[in-house]
Design goal:
Blueprint (H helix, E strand, L loop, with lengths): L19 E4 L6 H10 L4 E4 L3 H8 L11 H9 L3 E4 L11 E3 L14 H10 L8 E4 L7 H11 L5 E4 L9 H7 L2 E5 L2 H11 L6 E3 L2 H31 L4 H9 L19 H11 L5 H24 L6 E5 L14 H10 L4 E5 L12 H7 L2 E4 L16 E2 L10 E2 L1
Parallel strand pairs: 1-2, 1-4, 2-3, 4-5, 5-6, 7-8, 9-10, 9-11, 11-12, 12-13
Antiparallel strand pairs: 6-7
Helix pairs in contact: 1-3, 1-6, 8-10, 8-11, 10-11, 11-12
Length: 412
């Protein structure tokens, strides 16, 4: 499988000479993958329905925080390794097509496979028989094999693979370079071609069957989510005893290797951890006890904190400032952020709720940090951005579940 055609770097990339297409290539999963593929010598068709985001990339800017990506984008544009398209009929016919659209979860916590099906249906008339089609984002177990049968049922012959993305938000470039890539295919040919594709960007290839690969992705994220739930439960128990859990955790981990991986407590959120735990719960016919318990603990932590504050402060007379609205530190992504659950729950309890975040630029309600500190009677650290570490909170109380801040005014 020839993934790197002999094209000079200054030849403009076109739909015809792009040797790999990334559908959803301007999204959070797509951007680091596109740039890693370009760095690996490929010519990439960045296919995405979001025209505004494509224009941002085309101008040499990143649509969201992705560390180590700016220089790669500049280089890829200078070497004319990227072509930007926005419709299914504009995918390239001569190489692999990677789809970064996964299985969402509905309001009943059930997976919605029709989203993947609708995407594939739109692409299918423009795919050539023998072409490699790679699913990249989380899918419900069995989806890859189902897709193989679905496409065969339409009289088409494609090579179907599932090669899960497992990188940390914002650090995709670094982790794609360093971490093994799990590869699976519904046929030996599909697996072989998928392995050849990802060898251009990954240091190691690990092969599984499609269903094994689907579970590997879900198990990784659910396990991490359960780890957060365990430490959050410990935090709540210590808090009920009137103790500082951070002191206990520091002592537990000090020169004790079996405890080194216990995470600190905090608001476990984002677009993957809880969603993938829900996918496993749905697959297990709601018999995934650990997963359900983790969801109750992690999602309920916000409400526990508010209940505790109600016992200690007259919230209805106070302005409360929320520090950090992104779902994790040092990124600008607010998807599934528990900060917004905090905001919604506090709105009916506090006199005023104020919000700030140094990275998020999609929320018109955000205010500068200095203004939030000045106007607030009480603050809550929702996202432990580094800039809050040395902030002057003017002696006002700050609730810090994370154990991130220090000072007499910090409430743990």
């Amino acid at each position: 499988m020839n993934l790197r055609p002999d094209l000079s770097a200054n030849t403009p990339t076109t739909i015809e000479n792009a040797n790999v297409t990334v559908v959803g290539g301007a999204g959070h999963v797509g951007v680091p993958l596109v740039l890693a593929l370009a760095e690996g010598g490929n010519r990439v068709n960045v296919n995405d329905i979001n025209k505004d985001t494509l224009e941002i990339l085309k101008s040499g800017r990143l649509p969201y925080i992705e560390y180590d990506a700016a220089d790669l984008l500049t280089k890829a544009l200078a070497e004319k390794r990227l072509v930007f398209t926005h419709a299914p009929e504009q995918i390239s016919k001569g190489g692999p097509v990677i789809v970064t659209i996964g299985t969402p979860v509905d309001e009943f916590l059930n997976p919605v496979r029709r989203v993947v099906q609708a995407c594939i249906d739109s692409l299918l008339p423009h795919l050539a028989d023998g072409q490699l089609l790679v699913l990249r984002s989380t899918v419900f177990p069995g989806t890859t094999d189902w897709l193989h049968s679905y496409i065969e049922g339409k009289g088409r012959k494609l090579k179907i693979a599932f090669c899960p993305e497992r990188v940390v938000q914002g650090y995709g470039i670094k982790e794609l370079r360093e971490m093994p890539q799990i590869v699976s295919g519904t046929t030996p040919e599909a697996e072989q071609d998928a392995a050849a594709l990802f060898k251009s960007i990954a240091p190691e290839i690990v092969t599984l069957t499609p269903t094994e690969a689907e579970f590997a992705k879900l198990f990784n994220n659910a396990y991490r989510y359960i780890e957060f739930a365990a430490t959050n439960e410990f935090y709540l128990i210590a808090r009920s005893a009137g103790l500082d859990y951070q002191r206990i955790l520091n002592a537990m981990k000090h020169n004790y290797p079996r405890a080194r991986n216990i995470p600190r407590p905090g608001f476990a959120a984002g677009p993957c951890l809880v969603k993938d735990t829900m996918q496993l719960a749905a697959y297990a016919r709601n018999q995934f006890g650990l997963g359900h318990a983790a969801m109750l603990i992690n999602e309920g932590l916000v409400l526990h904190v508010i209940d505790d504050l109600q016992r200690r402060f007259p919230l209805d007379t106070m302005s409360v400032g929320l520090l950090g609205m992104a779902f994790k530190a040092e990124v600008d992504d607010t998807r599934a952020s528990l900060s917004y659950k905090f905001k919604n729950a506090l709105t009916s309890q506090a006199r005023t709720v104020l919000t700030t975040d140094p990275y998020v630029n999609t929320d018109p309600d955000l205010q500068p940090l200095g203004d939030v500190i000045a106007k607030s009677d009480l603050m809550i650290l929702c996202t432990p951005h580094a800039c809050y570490k040395d902030a002057d909170f003017k002696g006002k109380p700050v609730v810090d579940v994370w154990g991130f801040l220090h000072g007499a005014n910090v409430i743990r």
